[in-house]
């Protein structure tokens, strides 16, 4: 009992405060009908509160991993539909994504090394357009980034994701494509049905999560459930969507995690790193927008859908944005999945080359 009281008065209280702050921020954003409210609202308020010196506690890693499993599973029906209509437009979108990766890695590696005085390994990881957790897993596996460099890499990628959320929210509002919010309770109650299929969906989540934890593949907590759920939905065994409550909780989780990381970054280096990350992100957005316009004319796919498919960011974060805006999540997830597989092949190879070059110069 005394241990429980100590936990509740220390870490437990901070965790409760973090959740409360995130919910308040998301609720305010939802009430004023802000785009992507539960993600954007929780992100901004936790970043401000953490930056002000309030001791919030970031949600534990297992919680984040299971949220990624839920998001991967939620993408199943959209990806299954995209697989059934797989064609030239999807191939061209994947080709555009690969072109964007090559350009960003070449230009970004030079930029971060030259202007932010990063090591070659740090610069390479900061330029890769993947998710934060995948980049950190690559850094750990290849032993290129030191423990002291982890906050720098995390900050660069966090600023990039935050910029993506803000930029896409603005563009969606400007283009009038932001999804109608409905009633406030729709964010929680929509899709909640006591059904055998809901139990089957839960089984897919549990099996996918256990398999991802067992295999320990970088990024596997999204890709493994995505593949499994896509196959299950394609067979017609399950035809219900993930309840909106799950999506809302996932948005709150990622918003609070990104907000805490952004607010508690390396303050002494924050202005320089944040400025550099914003500059590189702006270039990446321009490149993604140009490719989206070009390939949009060829394929007929909407600009915002193609932009999200090509923009730098993790598949979980980008999928949450797409789900909130009611875009073609299947195509976006397919392109990001193919890009993820490409990065899985190129990333470790590039880090091994960089690691060998660094050792040879010592």
Q: Can you describe what's shown?
A:
The chain is mostly helical and 362 residues long. The chain has one domain (61-360). 78% of the residues lie in helices and 0% in strands. It contains 17 helices and no strands. The protein has helices spanning 2-9, 11-31, 37-51, 61-74, 76-84, 88-115, 120-127, 132-142, 150-175, 186-189, 196-215, 220-235, 244-263, 270-299, 303-310, 315-325, 329-360. Helix 2 (11-31) packs across helix 3 (37-51) and helix 4 packs across helix 13 (244-263). The longest helix is centred in the C-terminal third of the chain and has 32 residues, at 329-360. The N and C termini lie far apart (54 Å).
Which helices and strands occur, and which strands form pairs?
Blueprint: H1 2-9, H2 11-31, H3 37-51, H4 61-74, H5 76-84, H6 88-115, H7 120-127, H8 132-142, H9 150-175, H10 186-189, H11 196-215, H12 220-235, H13 244-263, H14 270-299, H15 303-310, H16 315-325, H17 329-360
Helix pairs in contact: 1-2, 2-3, 2-13, 3-13, 4-11, 4-12, 4-13, 5-12, 5-17, 6-7, 6-14, 6-17, 7-8, 7-17, 8-9, 8-17, 9-14, 9-16, 11-12, 14-15, 15-17, 16-17
């Amino acid at each position: 009992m005394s241990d429980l009281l100590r936990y509740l008065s220390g870490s437990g209280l901070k965790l409760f405060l973090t959740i409360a702050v995130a919910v308040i921020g998301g609720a305010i954003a939802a009430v004023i009908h802000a785009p992507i409210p539960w993600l954007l609202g929780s992100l901004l308020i936790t970043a401000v509160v953490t930056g002000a010196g309030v001791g919030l506690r970031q949600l534990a890693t297992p919680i984040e991993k299971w949220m990624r499993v839920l998001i991967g599973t939620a993408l199943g029906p959209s990806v299954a539909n995209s697989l059934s209509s797989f064609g030239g437009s999807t191939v061209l979108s994947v080709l555009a994504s690969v072109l964007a990766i090559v350009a960003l890695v070449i230009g970004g590696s030079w930029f971060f090394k030259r202007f932010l005085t990063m090591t070659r390994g740090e610069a390479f990881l900061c330029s890769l357009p993947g998710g934060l957790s995948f980049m950190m897993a690559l850094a750990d596996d290849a032993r290129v980034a030191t423990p002291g460099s982890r906050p720098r890499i995390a900050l660069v990628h966090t600023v990039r994701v935050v910029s993506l959320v803000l930029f896409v929210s603005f563009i969606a509002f400007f283009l009038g494509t932001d999804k109608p919010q409905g009633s406030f309770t729709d964010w929680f109650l929509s899709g909640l049905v006591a059904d055998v299929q809901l139990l089957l969906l839960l089984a897919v989540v549990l099996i996918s999560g256990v398999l991802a934890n067992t295999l320990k593949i970088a990024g596997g907590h999204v890709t493994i459930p995505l593949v499994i759920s896509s196959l299950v939905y394609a067979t017609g065994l399950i035809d219900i969507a993930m309840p909106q409550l799950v999506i809302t909780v996932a948005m709150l989780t990622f918003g609070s995690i990104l907000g805490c990381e952004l607010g508690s970054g390396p303050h002494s280096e924050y202005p320089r790193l944040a400025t550099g990350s914003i500059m590189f992100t702006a270039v990446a957005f321009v490149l993604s927008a140009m490719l989206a316009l070009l390939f949009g004319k060829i394929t007929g796919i909407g600009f915002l859908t193609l932009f999200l498919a090509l923009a730098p960011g993790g598949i979980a974060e980008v999928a949450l944005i797409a789900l909130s805006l009611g875009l073609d999540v299947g195509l976006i997830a397919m392109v990001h999945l193919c890009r993820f597989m490409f990065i899985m092949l190129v990333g470790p190879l590039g880090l091994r080359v960089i690691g060998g070059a660094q050792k040879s110069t010592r």
